[in-house]
Fold:
Amino acid sequence: MTKKSNLENPDSAFHKLVGRQALFVDEYMKDSNGRQAAKRAGYAESSWGVIASKNLQNPVIRMAIAELRQDIAERNRITVDDLIAELEEARCAGLSANIAQASAAVSATMGKAKMLGFLTDQIDHTSGGEKIESGLGHFYGKTKLKEDDMYDEE
Structure:
């Protein structure tokens, strides 16, 4: 029996999205660029950055994105271990090439560091100095959805 994707599950966070939020999430999944997702979702140009920031802080939207990413990983049978192994292979190949490819080795090492959470490209300014949990554990069972968390700004 094949596991249903989150999009097929009527209880998924994606199905709780209102208005343009679903379109925003669809667009965000293309390139993980919130501002461009807001633009492509049809929000007003003057509010792209604000909408992107608000949407990406919305617990329902964050959960929908996490569910879709999980679907993609499962559909493509990708695990973190697979990706780490590929990066290690690339790093070793870069170091052992006839002419050492230091940039390839560094790039692979940086990729591994990012995947393992040792290096991030973004800074979360919303934590107020509190510890920010990584992974999906903080979404499941701990996030209580409130009606005021579900908004759709024009």
User: Anything to note?
Assistant: The domain at 10-77 is CATH 1.10.10.1400 (Arc Repressor Mutant, subunit A).
